[in-house]
Specification:
Keywords: Coiled coil. Residues 32-59 form a coiled coil. One of its GO terms (cellular component) is lytic vacuole. GO terms for molecular function: SNARE binding. By secondary structure, the protein is mainly α. The chain has a domain at 111-169 and 199-268 and 289-350: Actin-binding Protein, T-fimbrin, domain 1 (Orthogonal Bundle). The protein is 63% helix and 5% strand. It has helices at residues 2-15, 25-134, 139-163, 222-246, 274-282, 302-321, 332-343, 346-350, and strands at 166-169, 200-203, 254-255, 262-265, 290-293.
């Protein structure tokens, strides 16, 4: 670039030629010398300024690079702050869950401690109960008390048997009897029904006859109807007394009234319509008891027959309570006799 400037200056000198007088030569020479020195100083200053400019450019480039690095680091820092914030929230949630789980475990531990204490107390009581049962006043005493209770029950039911004796009568007309009695066993097997050489059952010398339970007519014997109703009243009273002595609540409660006794059934009546039965079954808990007469009331015999069926069910309930099977759904007196015979037997006390 300096060479180019010199060439330009030479051309200018060739184009412009200045004539200097001798007397002005020194002055011009001095001026040229000063200009030359000023030019050198300017060049030095230019060189210095160029160096400073280069250094400033380098510093600016370095500063710009550092600024870019700082921006990148700032972005990384922001992203790291965001991640740390999310991690902090997650840590708080985990901490809350841990606290809840710790509280739940503490409650469970307290419950286990309480249950363990209760279990220890129960185990101690069980050991004491076992010791009491193993002692002379334990199981043996319980058996003695149970035996005394059964002896007492046997005595009281023997009074019922004396009050309402159920006996076998030989030679009665079998076609008129509702019941016949044959030998039975503890298994509940009933061997046969109404054989000619077997006797029929009576309660207090009264038979339960078939004729009153057929369709009544104008020629039906009223005395026979009355005797049948009286016999059913005796059976109802005997069953009620035995149930009270055995402390067994009857499934079908009785309303005693001698020959005008009734039995209660909490099931829907057979006389109700299908819609009434459906609505009644939905409200079985609030259902009122239906009374069925244990005697013939008017010309209708269905209700009385159903009442006899329910009375036999009560007798079967007592038989099942003492561990004896029923002799059949139509054997009222036979089941009652089986009940009395079993309770009054010596085996009843030892069972």
């Amino acid at each position: 670039m300096e060479a180019k400037d010199k060439a330009v200056a030479a051309e200018n000198q060739q184009e412009i030629v200045k004539v200097v007088q001798w007397e002005d030569f020194e002055h011009e020479l001095a001026r040229l010398v000063s200009l030359s020195s000023a030019l050198n100083e300017a060049k030095e200053k230019k060189a210095l300024l160029q160096q400073k400019l280069d250094s400033l450019i380098q510093v600016e480039a370095k500063s710009l690079s550092q600024s870019n690095q700082l921006d990148e680091m700032r972005e990384k820092l922001e992203s790291r702050k965001l991640v740390m914030g999310n991690e902090s929230m997650h840590v708080k949630v985990v901490e809350e869950n841990v606290n809840k789980e710790e509280e739940r475990l503490s409650n469970e531990i307290r419950s286990l401690l309480v249950a363990g204490t209760g279990l220890s107390v129960s185990r101690k009581r069980l050991q004491e109960a076992n010791m009491l049962l193993a002692s002379e006043r334990g199981y043996v005493h319980l058996r003695k008390v149970q035996k005394l209770l059964r002896v007492r029950q046997q005595y009281m039911i023997s009074q019922v048997s004396m009050l309402y004796p159920v006996k076998v009568v030989i030679g009665h007309a079998h076609e008129q009897e509702l019941e016949s009695f044959t030998s039975s066993s503890k298994s509940g097997n009933f061997t046969g029904s109404k054989p000619i050489d077997q006797g029929s059952l009576t309660i207090s010398a009264l038979h339960l006859t078939v004729l009153p339970f057929k369709k009544m007519s104008f020629f039906t014997d009223k005395k026979e109807v009355q005797r049948s109703a009286t016999a059913l009243g005796y059976v109802a009273h005997a069953v009620s007394l035995i149930a009270s002595y055995l402390e067994v609540p009857l499934r079908y409660p009785l309303r005693l009234g001698g020959s005008r006794s009734y039995i209660h059934d909490y099931a829907p009546s057979s006389e109700s319509t299908s819609s009434e039965s459906a609505s009644t079954s939905l409200l079985s808990s609030n259902m009122k008891a239906t009374e069925f007469p244990l005697f013939l009331d008017g010309q209708e015999t269905t209700r009385a027959a159903y009442a006899v069926f329910l009375l036999n069910k009560d007798t079967e309930q007592l038989l099942n309570f003492i561990g004896v099977k029923s002799l059949g759904p139509r054997h009222v007196l036979a089941n009652l006799k089986e009940l009395l015979t079993t309770i009054l037997s010596p085996e009843y006390i030892d069972t």
